[in-house]
Amino acid sequence: MIERTLSTDEITALDAYWRAANYLTVGQIYLQDNPLLREPLRPAHIKPRLLGHWGTSPGLNLIYAHLNRIIRERDADVIYLAGPGHGGPALLANVYLEGTYSEVYPNITQNLMGLRAFFRQFSTPGGVPSHVSPPTPGSIHEGGELGYVLTHAFGAAFDNPNLLAVAVVGDGEAETGPLEGSWKGVRFLNPVHDGAVLPILHLNEYKIGGPTVLGRASDESIGRLLAGHGYDPHFVAGTDPMRVHATLARTLDACVDVIDLIQNNARTAGHATECRRWPAIVLRTPKGWTGPKEVDGKPIEGTFRAHQVPLAEVRTNPKHLAMLESWMRSYRPEWLFDQEGRLRADLAALAPKGDRRMGANPHANGGRLSVPLDLPNPRTYSIPVASPGTERHESTQRLGQLLRDTYRKNPSNFRLFCPDETNSNRLGAVFEVESRCLVERTIPTDERVSPEGRVMEVLSEHNCEGWLEGYLLTGRHGLFATYEAFALIVASMATQHAKWLDSCEELPWRVPVPSLNILLTSTCWRNDHNGFSHQGPGFMDTIISKKGTVARVYLPPDANCLLSVADHCLRSKNHVNLIIIDKQPQLQWLDLDEAREHCERGASVWQWASSVGQPDIVLACAGDIATMETLAAVAWLRARAPEMRVRVVNVVDLMSLFSPDEHPHGMTEERFVDIFTPDIDVVFAFHGYPGAVHQLLHRRTHASRFHVRGYREEGTTTTPFDMVVLNDTSRFHLVMEALRRTRHPPPGADRLIDECRAILKHHANYVREHFEDMPEIRDWVWKAA
């Protein structure tokens, strides 16, 4: 352990470094010229639009400066995750001071000219955002994505034994539900093979317009809250910078000592020990610390008015301009920076070197460390399909077997994240080689629960998604599986991650990371026992709307297609891959070789189910239940209207429906016409909301000929077939639509439509009397012609 008190000289140096970061933070918000105030400040030196957030920045700068000391003295491997909203100028200031920024962006040099460019780019067109984002070296967490900083930090620490992830939690952020749930991550952190997370709850009492709950809470109540979550809280507070520096330095040393002790004890014993209360820091500093105390008679420092731009009229109000100049000169830039505009050499020496700098840490550019998965051969788990649509199997069970052996072959590079539904989703084969992770006591009635477990089950979609994102962004691989309806809980998280990856596409220094893979099961069509609340396919719409460079949506109709898609997704990088397939027993259509070819094409004509020659109608489908209903409709038409020529098209890669200029998987118009014909009507049975398909097809020729049937917010606790009936997507609805839209109606088409209506009426009576579907529906299989 390191037990010492910093000398006055050391504290003075730390304070100077902090002042330099504060100066650069203010400069980014306000200045477009005269970066070091080498001449009196004039309105022309001020940006025309003042954008940025000052209030949280001094605290973020303070923490960064002190972590630099910890890294230097201990050769620690540390990444910094800034949870408080728009703390971007603070993190940018620090990665500039440590030299990382100029290495990544050579045009932002370490001199007066580079400093001017550094200020001018902040929150301006063609520049960088005001929040921590992909262009910020050292970042894996989007500033302003309130609520997720701890989940990302824990995800980064899993299977990263030497990493310390410091997660700064803003007191506004601490009010969110996801953050409140994410404190539980410490119960899943195994000190034997995981790194550590040091939460720093930064309390400055105010949000953008009012007080925060924890900001007004007593230390005693906050201490009880954190202790109940499994932490040993350490409090640092004050307004005197020198005293705060001294206290924070001692506190950080004590916390890192405890972390080292916990890890050393666990690694010596070979298992997590009982006494492992992890440290956390509660840092109370004034909002907008070191900024203006009062403006126009109103208090600023320590109030909500310091949240963004404390002096808003500096271009037009000479008094405000003078206050800004006085504020900036209070940091003594003429002493902090030399004549060339570089940070003084003795201060620059306070930053770590090389990859130990937090802006240069390779864990925050995880592609640098990523090792490809050693994946098993999907053929091992494939289902022989001698005849399409004649046998039922649980498709996700086969995926579970593949994931089991992925764990076996990748013992520290892959994890499955699932909110207590691994067995429910038929992925339970993973428990043949792994256990559920819980770093707590176990009792005899537990099943496959262990502190050493690496199957991450916690009843929080936010934690599961956030853990996986942190795990991926630091270079590892994984899969998040959940019920379809509950995926909407993390729609904003998936959106932010997709935007992160999209931004990274424009940054050549960001090495691609493994893709975010999301598996949705217990889908709307087979959640009959849970009822209407669990019937919602809307998450797919969220992903479809994202950039084509990033977003992928797959609807495998059977096990072999699922295996093919999963193998592809687990190998891919920089994508958000959404896979949707139900967990219930379902008919199997393609053998593995056929499935692979089909998935590579994205969409195919299923010749074995189609009529020979030019069709009178095209029946298309995307989704497992939609596929079964479509094939059942085709079989019905084949038996009752054999002269009607039907083409069957199955779509497994939904993005293939886009045009190529909208998505890289999009079909050329030539291929699209070859599959769907140039002008024949298409009855399209779809897994989700019909509008999604219309969105994909909007630029196609004669898009109005597509008649989409899908989920339309009709549901209840009912039978499986009744669900498709309620949503007008049953085989009989598809038949009636086909008969109405076909180019050459068969003889007796009206009579066939009436027959379908009669069957549907009989169905409604039958399920209400017998509580199950009719045998001819329940036991239907495909019969080759």
From TrEMBL:
The keyword Transmembrane helix does not apply. Keywords: Lyase, Thiamine pyrophosphate. Residues 583-782 form the Xylulose 5-phosphate/Fructose 6-phosphate phosphoketolase C-terminal domain. PROSITE patterns: PHOSPHOKETOLASE_1, PHOSPHOKETOLASE_2. Residues 354-373 are annotated as: Disordered. Belongs to the XFP family. The keyword Endoplasmic reticulum does not apply. InterPro entries: THDP-binding, Transketo_C/PFOR_II, Xul5P/Fru6P_PKetolase, Xul5P/Fru6P_PKetolase_C, Xul5P/Fru6P_PKetolase_CS, Xul5P/Fru6P_PKetolase_N, Xul5P/Fru6P_PKetolase_ThDP_BS. Its cofactor is thiamine diphosphate. Residues 7-368 form the Xylulose 5-phosphate/Fructose 6-phosphate phosphoketolase N-terminal domain. This is Phosphoketolase family protein.
